[in-house]
Specification:
Protein name: Poly(3-hydroxyalkanoate) polymerase subunit PhaE
Organism: Variovorax rhizosphaerae
Strand content: under 5%
Radius of gyration: 39 Å
Structural class: mainly alpha
Pfam families: PHA_synth_III_E (PF09712)
Helix content: 40-55%
Pathway: Biopolymer metabolism; poly-(R)-3-hydroxybutanoate biosynthesis
Keywords: PHB biosynthesis
Length: 182
Amino acid sequence: MAKSGLSILDPLEMWRDALAQWEGTANKVAGKQLKTEEFTKVLHSVSGATMSMQQALTKANKTVLKEMNLASRDDLTEIGERLHRIEDMLEFLCRQVSGKSPAASAPAPMPPRTRVPPTAGAAPAPAPTPAVPAAAAPAVEATTTSVASVPPKAPAKPKVKAVAKRATEAAPATKRPARKKA
């Protein structure tokens, strides 16, 4: 595209220059004002008024929510924390019922690998012979299956009633703490 004679008067560049000059002047004036003690006092009083308005609004909101029989944010946070503690206790009780200790939640270690792959120059090792009498050998072969074809067992589900009964027998009955009144 050919340059025209009007490209010398770029309106956007003139706008950028004017904006830069305005920002520089505003920064100088604001810098001088921020250093004065009067401005600091006004800023402090405005922030104090804002804080007191926020506190009054929070108190009014709590009152309105209480009158409407609705939960506040603090109530929901408290319920979430209590629910988390209950879930942790249920998990602990389920582990106790299943016979596992809480520290033994990691999966069982794999058995050691004892087979050594044959090397390129060595002859393959003979297959081990079973120590089963010849008459019983076909029955053993018929019942053995590969590990890959055995479906995994579903974990046993603990009985909730038994867990609750054991928990009440083990711990003395305690009274629930009273709900906080706002």
